[in-house]
Amino acid sequence: MNLYRGCEHQCIYCDSRSECYGIEDFRDVLVKVNAIPLLRRELASKRIKGYIGTGSMSDPYTRAERTYRLTRQALDVIAEFRFPIHMLTKSDRVVEDLDRLVEVNRTGALISFTITTVDDDLAARLEPGAPSPSRRLRAMETLASHGISTGVSMMPILPFLEDTEENIAAIITRARDAGASYIIGGIGMTLRDRQREHFYECLDRHFAGVRERYQRAYGGRYEAKPPNGDRLWCLYRDLCDEYGLTKGVTPYEPHPPATQLSLF
User: What is the CATH number of the domain that holds 70?
Assistant: First the structure.
């Protein structure tokens, strides 16, 4: 479910800029003004329930949400039809819809915060339009205190910028302390056509010399995995096991339908 097209968070590494998604200018946020009646029609026709996912292409709490409130309206419809939701966001504004999420959570709600570093200064250069990781962690704590399952999408981990054991450990530890119940891990990043071009331009402005390291290490490859990626992946698994955190999210298990009792 993508209620908006484009995103004002403008993360320098965002894969959604890639040409395959057909978004000409990712800085422009287009509003799907007919999304709510379409969602209502779709959910009314469903007989098998599963998670409604949102946030993979455009953050549901981009600044346009302040005006249009499509995410808030969608939560009302989702609660009405008793569907679960898995929401991915970089915004602490999700807590403004806490009342709606509590209602949706009667069926099931998962809120995943993308956090690739807990260093607010570094994040400000990588994700210039997004709320800081500190604000996201505070929002996570609020949601967890109200019984809503929350966790971290720890991806992408950018080579030469975030690929340290200290960074991985800090993300997982801070998430655990904020009430996370799971971590979705992903070490490395993609480098597609327009995504690569934009990312390299931003590296030139904010991280002198790092672009050349990428070009030497990855050339025109699609996937950029840190040289120490295997070690970081092991650290992720070990810390999740130590802290009792699930590595990923648990699939939705709908309640079995009521059965008619036999007369005899």
Answer: 3.20.20.70
